[in-house]
Design a protein that fits this description.
Layout: H1 2-22, H2 25-29, E1 36-42, H3 49-68, E2 80-86, H4 91-103, E3 108-111, H5 115-126, E4 132-134, H6 141-144, E5 150-152, H7 157-174, E6 181-187, H8 190-202, E7 209-216, H9 224-233, E8 237-241, H10 244-256, E9 263-267, H11 275-280, H12 282-285, E10 289-292, H13 300-311, H14 319-337, H15 342-350, E11 367-368, E12 371-372, E13 378-383, E14 386-391
Parallel strand pairs: 1-2, 1-3, 3-4, 4-5, 6-7, 6-8, 8-9, 9-10
Antiparallel strand pairs: 10-13, 11-12, 13-14
Length: 406
């Protein structure tokens, strides 16, 4: 009898507990929503490791901010969970990581950095209708293929080159047209070669003579021959399109050999808009101009984020605000889609209008064939051991110094 009474009490107790649970929706609401997996693809090993680490940091800053501010509210406060992939500085590895992220069920992928990686990775993602947001990759082939899953937040090199050359002409005209001759120096991959081809066609239209175009490999261990050739040609301007290590090497070599053109005007350069270059080689970096990605120096949140990063002893470069903004963009799309369904996220990205939760010097974010029409580069120049924006005036915090006195 004792066992029977105990059993009945247990049953009754369990029934009361179950009834209380059903009558308390607050208990159910307190349960956390499933996390939304977001793929972050960056090359953190190999020749592009520095850029990859900067991109990862920018993404992490945004993820942390989003999660602390309540996650994806339309999905019950679901947190964003990073699934990181190391592209290992080559397209094949990037594709492999996309396949792994697909198997892990990510809702979208952000990143890639280099154009060849972005081309391969976004193509692989398209097979699964997996939204892919390109952070940096500037090759216009990325958005020219008609892939519905691929969106580039930043400008491509067609637009960058047109703006860069237009601003160069303005700078030169304002100074009395002291520069007439140019030597192009570029890395021999998809990025550098594409830019060089465009500039060869466009510079003469703006009154500049292209004396020679010099290609170099990535990575490169020596720039002596390139510097010697520049010395023999003695151009007014040197226009380099290279990754970080190669341009630092070229700039240092030019400094050592006392090669002093009227200006070094970089386009999408890996070092000219990088504070590490300014800090480690201030004399070689002095007065170097660049047309590139950069944060909006008049945006208080951008300035605060830069102080936070540098205050923690870390490097700030354009990869950080770009990836921060890209993650914010995809989070906004998921919020509007109210779903982790990939097709709905793609639809939300394509319909983006008026998105302002970024820290770039852009106009309204609007995608046409996967390209953000509001994106544009800025011109920067190394002045007083810092990187300043000199064009356009709406975002500038300094005036250009040109020509540079020997």
């Amino acid at each position: 009898m004792i066992e029977t009474r105990t059993s009945r009490r247990a049953v009754l107790k369990g029934g009361v507990a179950a009834t209380a649970l059903l009558a308390s929706p607050a208990v159910l609401r307190g349960q956390s929503a499933p996390a939304v997996k977001l793929g972050i693809l960056q090359p953190v090993t190999g020749a592009l490791a520095q850029d990859g680490e900067l991109g990862r940091m920018g993404a992490e800053l945004a993820l942390d901010e989003i999660n602390k501010s309540g996650g994806i509210k339309s999905l019950g406060g679901a947190k964003l969970e990073m699934v990181f992939g190391d592209a290992r500085s080559n397209p094949e590895a990037g594709t492999q990581e996309v396949e792994r992220m697909q198997s892990e069920g990510v809702a979208a992928i952000v990143g890639g950095f280099a154009s060849p990686i972005c081309l391969a990775a976004s193509q692989a993602a398209s097979r699964y209708d997996l939204p892919y947001i390109v952070d940096v990759g500037v090759s216009d082939q990325i958005t020219a293929r008609g892939l519905k899953n691929t969106f580039r937040f930043a400008p491509g090199f067609g637009m960058v080159t047109q703006i860069a050359l237009g601003n160069l002409a303005k700078i030169n005209d304002a100074a009395g047209k002291p520069a007439k001759t140019v030597v192009l120096v570029h890395e021999d991959g998809l990025f550098g070669s594409g830019l060089a081809k465009l500039m060869q066609a466009e510079l003469p239209k703006r009154g500049f003579e292209v004396m020679e175009t010099i290609a170099h490999p990535t990575p490169a261990r020596d720039m002596s021959n390139v510097a010697l050739r520049i010395r023999s040609l003695n151009p007014d301007l040197v226009i380099p399109s290279s990754y970080y290590g190669e341009f630092v090497l070229l700039a240092r070599t030019m400094q050592q050999q006392r090669i002093r053109p009227k200006g070094v005007y970089a386009v999408l350069n890996g070092a000219a808009s990088n504070p590490r270059f300014v800090r480690e080689a201030p004399e070689a970096a002095a007065n170097v101009m660049d047309c590139n990605h950069w944060h909006d120096p008049r945006n208080g949140r951008a300035v605060a984020l830069r102080k936070q990063v540098e205050g923690g002893g870390k490097l700030w470069a354009y990869n950080v605000p770009l990836n921060y903004s890209c993650v914010k963009l995809v989070a906004n799309a998921i919020e509007r889609a109210k779903s982790v369904d990939r097709s709905k996220i793609i639809e939300a990205l394509a319909a983006t209008s008026g998105f302002k939760d970024h820290i770039m010097p852009y106009g309204e974010v609007k995608f046409v064939n996967g390209q953000n029409q509001g994106a544009a580069p800025v011109n920067t120049q190394v002045q007083d051991n810092d990187i300043k924006v000199i064009f356009p005036e709406a975002f500038a915090d300094a005036k250009p110094i040109f020509p540079v006195k020997a």
